[in-house]
Design brief:
- With 499 residues, the protein is α/β, with parallel strands linked by helices.
- 38% of the residues lie in helices and 21% in strands.
- It has helices at 3-23, 26-41, 45-49, 58-64, 70-81, 116-134, 164-168, 174-177, 184-187, 192-203, 215-229, 233-236, 251-261, 374-388, 427-441, 443-450, 466-473, 491-498; strands at 95-99, 107-111, 143-146, 154-156, 159-162, 180-181, 208-212, 242-246, 266-273, 276-280, 289-291, 297-303, 326-332, 339-350, 353-360, 392-400, 409-416, 458-461.
- The strands form 3 sheets. An 11-stranded mixed β-sheet has the order 6-3-7-8-9-10-11-15-14-13-12. Strands 2-1-5-4 form a 4-stranded mixed β-sheet.
- β8, α13 (251-261) and β9 form a beta-alpha-beta unit.
- The chain is globular.
- The chain starts with a helix and ends with a helix.
């Protein structure tokens, strides 16, 4: 055992004890975070506008501060972007994380002196927790890579801005700098395909131990490694034993990854966003990710089925239940208040509080009242693959409301894996397997099938790399960009049809 790995185990034990302390006192921890947020923002413009000086309880806060999304908070954000101080949080933010918006165009999410450390510590603690749980620490001596956006930052009214992953790249601890790949120059390449080619060239002969990134883009990296090296990734990198990911569910990719790697490896799931680092996988045996209750974020939860009603009930951490789909609402030490980030979660454990990301409140299908969410389509595809040994590279689902013939249906656009399994011998049987799995999970969908309002799933095959070409065509190839699993319209579907 090296000195570095020995030290990592000691540090991991220390962090584990600190984590247990707040995880075992969740309600008190959130109360402390809440009180601290209100006190620190009392004299900001937002605090004055919403009477923070009079807020003494959660219920006071909920009366004074309505739930907002980015568009609704934008008038305040615009003032921060212009360089004004003490608007949403004291002083000015250190950075803006620039993300793709919807109706508002680019979104500027503030990162403050108080919030930034939690982004770094959470990622670090996820790895340390893994070391504590498994006793495995040898990987700290190997090379590690995070497939991320460019670290080149712009500046707006004296505040630096860029993609979150690019900002985080500036905070890699010195003791990891020698292990970190790719080079700074390669990391700064903007074009994703050019960047991946350069990363392959730099890393193919290195001792890669940890690889991290969004699964869909890591898959592209692995495929290029396999093409160039002529071997499974696990043979090229004999000490590669830990994959760290976030952004999308890994399960639809797992079989493909194991084939590309040539063996099973451990993985850690993260739940980061520009708005905050919310959770990480704290157990290799338990389902879900540990919700970070002490990280400068106060959480509220609204049941998805009630979210679009007038004045839906807002639940705090002590009121949530298992296996209920909640919209995640956050207030943070970056100045986001009762903010809807768009993600939905379900609790898999209440001791400690663990969550899974079940989808996006805007990414669903309910064209006929079926209320289908991301978790359901991912599980349905997983079940169909397990029963048929078919492998899938990527997929998305959209409703077909007005087909030329017959009943409406859910159209699944699927890119099958030509190298591992190829396409199903009987595409209708595979569609039927997906449909059965959907019906078992979603009673509304089942009723629509029984009532002959909908016909069973229809699969449209997407050619190899078709989704990559689609993402490239809309300027979102690589980085932290993700393909929506579900759409309630046919904007993506119609573009895919044209490919």
């Amino acid at each position: 055992m090296s000195i570095k790995s020995f030290a990592a185990k000691i540090f991991a034990n220390s962090i584990h004890k600190k984590t247990q302390k707040w995880a075992n006192n969740p309600i008190e921890t959130q109360q402390k975070v809440f009180n601290d947020l209100i006190r620190q923002a009392e004299n900001t413009q937002f605090g004055k506008d919403h009477n923070f000086s009079e807020i003494k309880s959660f219920s006071d806060f909920q009366k004074q501060v309505p739930i907002r999304d980015y568009e609704e908070l934008k008038p305040y954000v615009d003032r921060v972007v212009k360089g004004e101080e003490n608007i949403l949080w004291k002083g000015k933010p250190l950075y803006f994380a620039k993300t793709s918006g919807t109706t508002s165009g680019a979104k500027y999410i503030p990162l403050t002196k108080e919030s930034m450390p939690f982004h770094i510590e959470a990622a670090r603690n996820a790895i340390l927790n893994y070391i504590h749980e498994t006793g495995k620490a040898d990987f700290v001596d190997g090379k590690m890579i995070f497939l991320q956006g460019s670290p080149i930052l712009e500046e707006k009214n004296g505040i630096k801005l860029g993609r979150l992953s690019g900002i985080v790249a500036h905070f890699v601890p010195k003791y990891l700098q020698k292990n970190r790949m790719p080079s700074w120059e390669t990391n700064c390449i903007e074009d994703w395909e050019t960047k991946v080619d350069a990363i392959v060239k730099e890393t193919i002969n290195e001792d890669m131990a940890i690889i991290s990134g969004i699964p869909s883009w890591v898959q592209m990296y692995f495929e290029k490694l396999h093409q160039k090296g002529g071997k499974p990734v696990g043979e090229l990198f004999k000490n590669f034993n830990l994959f760290i990911y976030g952004g999308v569910n890994y399960e639809p990719y797992r079989a493909k990854f194991e084939n590309l790697i040539g063996r099973k490896i451990d993985s850690i799931e993260l739940f980061p966003a520009s708005e905050g680092f919310f959770a990480y996988q704290d157990s290799q045996s338990e389902k879900g990710m540990l919700l970070l209750l002490n990280s400068g974020i106060f959480y509220e939860f609204v049941k998805s089925e009630e979210f679009f009603t007038e004045n839906p009930k807002r639940y705090t951490i002590g009121e949530v239940e298992l296996n209920v789909n909640y919209v995640l609402i956050i207030s943070t030490n970056a100045g986001l208040w009762a903010y809807n980030i768009g993600d939905t979660v379900q609790f898999t454990s209440l001791k400690p509080y663990r969550v899974i990301v079940s989808g996006r409140i805007k990414h669903y299908i309910s064209a006929f009242g079926e209320h289908v969410i991301g978790k359901e389509v991912e599980h349905a595809l997983q079940e169909a693959m397990e029963n048929t040994n078919i492998r899938v590279n990527e997929f998305t689902v959209a409703p077909q409301i007005a087909p030329e013939n017959g009943l409406p249906f859910h159209e699944w656009f699927i890119e099958f894996d030509p190298e591992v399994s190829g396409e199903p011998n009987n595409i209708e049987e595979f569609a039927f397997a997906i449909d059965n799995a959907m019906r078992k999970q979603n009673v509304y969908y089942d009723d629509l099938i029984i009532g002959k309002v909908l016909r069973t799933v229809v699969i449209t095959k997407v050619s190899k790399n078709g989704f990559q070409e689609y993402m490239k065509s809309i300027g979102k190839l690589g980085g932290q960009n993700k393909l929506p699993r579900l759409s309630n319209d046919r904007k993506i579907a119609d573009l895919l049809k044209r490919e």
